[in-house]
Amino acid sequence: DSTDVASTMASLQARMQSECKRFKEYYDIDYRNESNFDLVVDSSVMTAQEVAANIIKAYQSHLNK
Question: pTM of this prediction?
Fold first, then answer.
């Protein structure tokens, strides 16, 4: 029902704020800013094997710099 959805959304929002605060305190970064990372993999549309292949390819490319 809508109460459960609203409660879940509020919990997710609180968690996101908590994570943002924690990353800022420990690492001084906004983890939502992808420019902070060398590699970002969207695994929502890939198999585990495709994710692994992308990571390996990026790692090998990094080694060859």
Answer: 0.62
